[in-house]
């Protein structure tokens, strides 16, 4: 049986890894809809190569360019929110939800409501509206498969074991480019330095989040929702080689871990396989003897305050993670364009969490509420950013 796979975020890094795998297994998969952001030429090229059944861009103004780039291909296409939702509504066995940022919430949730099997790579769905997403996944009988390497490793290490037998789960962090830097040196770091990720190749936003360890904080929040574990039973450990991705500590002292080379195709293949194992051409097998030693160290919340802030938001619950995520997106964008310094990211996020703490004690009931909070916090954070620069 051939499975139809739709990809939201097809031209990004996860989307590319997914199409690479699909192209390797043409007897097993066919491509349903491909959804991109605004790059008409890249999406059209991919849609032609993959024989997509539909192509859509989120940016409505890119519609004419997409239609032009796909002319003669016979591939129906569109642009804007309705076209994205049409792409989601098309028949698919698996939807890979890899749009980055808050823009991924609506299409991902639409796939859940259709009861699809969703390979989830969009972090914000669970960070901003985790309660609503998990509730609706159960309500609409949708299956959520974690694509992120850490959660995928946890899912594999957990197997069929009950979460009630788990003492704790730990996700690993590479430590990012600043792992060995002093606080003073980190304080003066440029966006280029922060974006130089040692083990994974990813987009700019997630690279900065990896340098600040905010990415690990977001992943703790995701793990809390995915595995229904309380914050106290979730942990981070720094592991520079990025070979062990997640560890499950059982009540009896046994530990099972998920290991793999740092290659996103491994967790994606696990999701696409739906219980079967897919071979990966041109994948490098894990060679532990060549790796030599695997090292571990505690995460330093003094040099990486974003991890402390994220843990606090997770513990606070309610909409704290929604607020934190929105402020972080604005702060990271400001850092990338050179408007603020590295530790200003944590300062802005912490101030936003304090500012909105009293207003948002309850978790967003649905995606619309999460997006409304997101928009309000973004507006506040944009206002706060230049003041911070002047003060600093
Ligand atoms: Mg990750």
From TrEMBL:
InterPro entries: DXP_reductoisomerase, DXP_reductoisomerase_C, DXP_reductoisomerase_N, DXPR_C, DXPR_C_sf, NAD(P)-bd_dom_sf
Pathway the protein contributes to: Isoprenoid biosynthesis; isopentenyl diphosphate biosynthesis via DXP pathway; isopentenyl diphosphate from 1-deoxy-D-xylulose 5-phosphate: step 1/6
Annotated 1-deoxy-D-xylulose 5-phosphate reductoisomerase N-terminal domain residues: 5-130
Domain 1-deoxy-D-xylulose 5-phosphate reductoisomerase C-terminal: start-end pairs: 144-227
Alphabetical keyword list: Isoprene biosynthesis, Magnesium, Manganese, Metal-binding, NADP, Oxidoreductase
Reactions accelerated catalytically: 2-C-methyl-D-erythritol 4-phosphate + NADP(+) = 1-deoxy-D-xylulose 5-phosphate + NADPH + H(+)
Chain residues that bind Mn(2+): 148, 150, 219
Chain sites annotated for binding NADPH: 11-14, 37-38, 122, 124, 203
Cofactor(s) essential for the protein: Mg(2+); Mn(2+)
UniProt domain DXP reductoisomerase C-terminal: residue ranges: 259-379
Residues binding 1-deoxy-D-xylulose 5-phosphate, per UniProt: 123, 149-150, 174, 197, 210, 215-216, 219
Family: Belongs to the DXR family.
Entries under PANTHER family matching the protein: 1-DEOXY-D-XYLULOSE 5-PHOSPHATE REDUCTOISOMERASE, 1-DEOXY-D-XYLULOSE 5-PHOSPHATE REDUCTOISOMERASE, CHLOROPLASTIC
Function text: Catalyzes the NADPH-dependent rearrangement and reduction of 1-deoxy-D-xylulose-5-phosphate (DXP) to 2-C-methyl-D-erythritol 4-phosphate (MEP).
NCBIfam families registered for this protein in UniProt: Dxr
Protein name: 1-deoxy-D-xylulose 5-phosphate reductoisomerase
Record lineage: Bacteria, Pseudomonadati, Pseudomonadota, Alphaproteobacteria, Hyphomicrobiales
């Amino acid at each position: 049986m051939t499975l139809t796979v739709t990809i939201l975020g097809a031209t990004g890094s996860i989307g590319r890894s997914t199409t690479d795998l699909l192209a390797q297994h043409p007897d097993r998969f066919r491509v349903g809809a491909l959804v991109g952001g605004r790059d008409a030429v890249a999406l059209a090229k991919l849609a032609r190569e993959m024989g997509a059944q539909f192509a859509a861009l989120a940016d409505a103004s890119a519609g004419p360019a997409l239609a032009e780039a796909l002319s003669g291909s016979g591939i129906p296409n569109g642009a804007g929110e309705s076209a994205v939702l049409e792409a989601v509504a098309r028949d698919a066995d698996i939807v890979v939800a890899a749009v980055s940022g808050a823009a991924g919430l609506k299409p991902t949730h639409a796939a859940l409501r259709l009861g699809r099997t969703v390979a989830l790579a969009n972090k914000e769905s669970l960070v901003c509206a985790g309660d609503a997403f998990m509730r609706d996944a159960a309500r609409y009988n949708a299956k959520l498969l974690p694509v992120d390497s850490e959660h995928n490793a946890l899912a594999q290490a957990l197997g069929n074991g009950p979460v009630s037998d788990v003492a704790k789960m730990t996700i690993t962090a590479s430590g990012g480019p600043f792992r060995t830097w002093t606080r003073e040196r980190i304080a003066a770091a440029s966006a280029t330095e922060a974006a130089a990720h040692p083990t994974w190749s990813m987009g700019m936003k997630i690279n900065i989040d990896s340098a600040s360890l905010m990415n690990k904080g977001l992943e703790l929040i995701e793990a809390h929702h995915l595995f229904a574990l309380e914050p106290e039973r979730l942990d981070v450990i720094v592991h520079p080689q990025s070979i062990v991705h997640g560890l499950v500590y059982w009540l009896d002292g046994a530990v099972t871990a998920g290991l793999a080379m740092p290659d996103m195709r491994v967790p994606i293949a696990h999701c696409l396989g739906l219980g079967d194992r897919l071979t990966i051409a041109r994948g490098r097998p894990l060679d532990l003897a060549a790796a030599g030693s695997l090292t571990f160290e505690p995460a330093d919340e003094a040099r990486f305050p974003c991890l402390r802030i994220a843990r606090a938001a997770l513990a606070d619950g309610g909409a704290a993670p929604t607020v934190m995520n929105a402020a972080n997106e604005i702060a990271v964008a400001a850092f990338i364009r050179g408007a603020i310094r590295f530790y200003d990211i944590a300062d802005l996020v912490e101030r936003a969490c304090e500012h909105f703490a009293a207003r948002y004690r309850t978790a967003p009931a649905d995606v619309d509420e999460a997006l409304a909070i997101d928009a309000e916090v973004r507006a506040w954070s944009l206002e706060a950013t230049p003041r911070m620069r002047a003060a600093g």
